[in-house]
């Protein structure tokens, strides 16, 4: 995934934990999931038109 291995992903997650704290991560994840879903829906809509 984007040339990142498991050690890099773990370091990124630790940085996110330090910056945002464990309580905010579910909110951030849900927001990112909604954004990705919206992006996919929009791109598929454009492809069909």
Q: What portion of residues is helical?
A: over 70%
Extended strand count: 0
SS-based structural class?
A: mainly alpha
Characterize the biggest β-sheet. Answer: none
Amino- and carboxy-terminal Cα gap: 30 Å
Number of helices: 2
Query: Rough shape?
Result: flat
User: Which residues sit in consecutive blocks of at least 5 with pLDDT less than 50?
Assistant: none
**Nearest-angstrom radius of gyration?**
15 Å
The run of helices and strands is HH
Overall average residue pLDDT: 85
Portion in strands = under 5%
**Oligomer type:** single chain
Q: What can you see in these coordinates?
A:
This protein is mainly alpha-helical and 49 residues long. The chain is 80% helix and 0% strand. The longest helix is centred in the last third of the chain and has 24 residues, at 25-48. The radius of gyration is 15 Å and the shape is flat. The termini are far apart. The mean pLDDT is 85.
């Amino acid at each position: 995934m984007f040339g990142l291995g498991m050690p890099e992903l773990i370091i990124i997650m630790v940085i996110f934990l330090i910056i945002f704290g464990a309580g905010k991560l579910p909110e951030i994840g849900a927001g990112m999931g909604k954004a990705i879903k919206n992006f996919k829906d929009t791109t598929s809509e454009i492809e069909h038109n």
